[in-house]
């Protein structure tokens, strides 16, 4: 009888073990972890966004979530995701990088319609950081092309802000009624003045501020403001007469979130960027928020500037990429002649 009872218990334990093995993986069985693959100069932003979202999500759902970050040049980061980096979400600085992931089937084709404002919760523009007193008198795009001026710009092949800088300079000529040949000439002369092409925006900032290379750094308005708040009076901010609309688009990486069972959390994370709290954190980091209420609170941080879009001047990111940044495109021709 004793042996029979033991056999019965063993069968019961075996059945429980087999039923546990048969249970489908559930993200809620353990703390959910998201990976946000982002661009170079968004580090400080997400250091503040992440704990705020984690606390809010816990408060509203009772669930724990953790978030890991990966940062680098925007295009380089997108290629890492395409090559297998397990991003739950991507938060980039140009639509082109997310389009590439959509073409690979990792992100929805209509990703830009999944969240408000073309799935870009914040925007910025390209401005100049110059040394105190602006000794080279740099005020506009053509001043960057003058002989004897050294300009620090990250590589447009790997960094979104390098790409935006190139397009802003080119577009500034077109918007004033100039020709494509005149635009090419200006951009060629600017890049002849670039002493080093760093891979990402943060590396370019380090080159200018800490390695003391260059007379001007061209980068996002929010990056320039952060440098000024950190280094005080060593630098001055210069707004050109016009510049480019630099949106910061976001997307859920469908293949990863569905495989890991974290779509709900990933979507909530990106929606948080549009909340009043998320918009306020973005504004504190000098990004221009979409919320008009939040924008008005931080209005003193944003100088009015005429902005043109990539769509307006270049026919969209895909056309701009093909013409200017693909291998053998305009940028390669320009830089090879340096």
Automatic annotation (TrEMBL):
Protein name listed in UniProt: Sulfate ABC transporter substrate-binding protein
Subcellular location: Periplasm
Family: Belongs to the prokaryotic sulfate-binding protein family.
UniProt cross-references to InterPro entries, sorted A to Z: Thiosulph/SO4-bd
Signal peptide annotation: 1-29
Keyword terms: Periplasm, Signal, Transport
Main location, first listed in the record: periplasm
Entries under PANTHER family matching the protein: SULFATE-BINDING PROTEIN
